[in-house]
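Here is one chain, start to finish.
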Amino acid sequence: MEIGKLKFDPEKRTYIMGILNVTPDSFSDGGKFSSIDSAIGHALLMEEEGADIIDIGGESTRPNHSDVSANEELDRVIPVIEELVKVLHIPVSIDTSKALVALEAVKVGASMINDVWGFKKDSEIARVAADSGVICCLMHNRDNTNYNNLIKDIQNDLLDSIDIALKAGVSKEKIILDPGIGFGKTVEQNLELMSKLSEIVEMGFPVMLGTSRKSMIGISLNLPVDNRLEGTIATNVLGVNSGCSIIRVHDVKENLQAVKMTDIILKYNSVSGY
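Its structure:
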């Protein structure tokens, strides 16, 4: 699988996606990178620290967030993507659930569509992914926490997203799954899912894990959002041990070192893969 210029080989090592929120209200870093210069500077820093992909989001997905229009989201992300693809040596991903935003982002250079609703919120986004041929990440999400069997229900929901993608013409080889930690789940359900990540990996697709600074960690450890690095690292080491292929984080340098050491132990690998 290729994500832009990145030759993505999960058998070789685990990959790091750096989070770049160009929003005023994201739960952790809202407002920090809302100017083009600050966004580009932070993306370049994450690349220097070892990120393999930069994921740009223009709409907060935190609990009780305010929806923004497609035009407002475009105004936030497109100028940043246009500049980033000129200076980065790693691919850019667009974090959106809107087909129009995904389409325009791909036009200006995004190599991946990361949809927190798994192609279920905007029916046209699957067609954008298919027509453009970019990689897509389908995240598990739902608007309630009512599960009969947590893992089986998550698997079935993800299968529905996969079916939407395949029917639109997306190649199976271009699909990545995300179990959706923190979305449509209670803290207890998130913890159970973390303990059973291997069952999501067993679905046969690369899996991306996004736990960075999330409330599951804050509530479990009674810590504020800016003091959750160690808890995040613990979840990511567990994710790598469970077979996850991409780790999505705010703190690239620290998580990369933990992931790299875990890879070396599990795969008896040399550091030459990094």
